[in-house]
Amino acid sequence: MWTHAQYTVLVLQCIFDDGRPEHRVCRFHNLLIHESNIHYIYSGPRPELPVIMANWHHDYYFEAVVTHVHELTDAMKAAPVMRIKAATLTWRQWHLNWYHGVGESIFEIYSSACTYLDYCGSQRNSSELTPIFIEKPGDEETWEEALPPAASALKCLYPTQAWWIKDKAIQDKVLLVETAVAGIGPFNRKWKGFEEKGVEFHSVYEPVPEWLSHRYRNLLVQCYNVKWPSIKAEGPYEVTLVNRQYHKGRSMLNSAAVITSMKAMKQVSSVKLVYMELLTFRQQLEAYAKAQVLVMGHGAAFANIMFMAPDSVVIVYNWIPTYTASQISPHSWITEYMQDLALPVNFVGTSTDDRRHILPQKEKLINQPEYKKLNSTEKLALLEHGVCPQTPLPGCHEMSLNFVVDWQLLEEAMKVAFANLRSRHSTVLDGTDPYHK
Asked: Over 70: is that where the pLDDT of 7 sits?
């Protein structure tokens, strides 16, 4: 049991405020969290809380129930109290996806904690900081259950138990948060989006400060005790080919032939084939860290390039038509990730929109009743050209299709990578990237 007599009302402070909700960051004192709701407790005249954006892409805002200190409910007064010294209040976007969880949400937590609360992982006791996630409705699965690498990386930075406001374990409790920050700020480490959305994003947010990126990456590299090989400019080079399993989709079906062709190149000393799904997170990090030249397609855990050695190179072979049709480079979300984290890694990207090299998992599709309703033209487009029909066909979307590498395209990309391995470069062979000229 606790009462308002044990509670001190403190006024919030907006520590970054240029008048734009997209940038506004505010520091709250003595927030209460109970039954999935955040309560801003006040005394005196009822305050108007400032508008604070929590997620730009989906236009979500920070929400708090404004509650007078003398109007706490009986349930709140009777609930056990969990005291939290400091917290970040962030909205995770698509957080159960490998890239969005590991490549975006973790960085946002660190950026908020370090920039606005001075919890940077080394200067103060990081165990005092509790990440709190405020997305609604959210996803019932936790990072520990669905994406252990994200949970692991977060604990490297802040070892205290993180909470989602709808976690069942805290529904019967009151979380009393002494100090918390909410808001995005003037810079934003999120995927920008394509077409007009990507252009608009760059008109709203600044690039991530390099000092913050360096500190973030160094902390994770130290936490996982990453060891890097020395990269010889003259070669020959050890190549790591990252693939996905067939049934997972986006699998490189001719990887054996690609490896044979790679080994025939005079610049290549060896080729190692790696399937991400079969490795633990630490094994994945080791595979990326040891790679001198790493070749990958879409969906091969590219967030892990954060752990690649200085002066190494990543070569990305893209075939996703959604990206090749965009006015923005299909590689922009990789090159911008690398720029945001100030990675000392070289990049070469190539793309194809040749649908002859895209293959659906036919055995999953042809026995479905929806397939039998397709006309002959739609069936031909699907089976011969890898084009999914306009009508819904379960399991037929770009993320579930597989592909065959056009060796001529990949060979050219590898030659560019070998020729420029020691000079910091970012090369897109199939178009321009307006943000990286």
From this structure: no
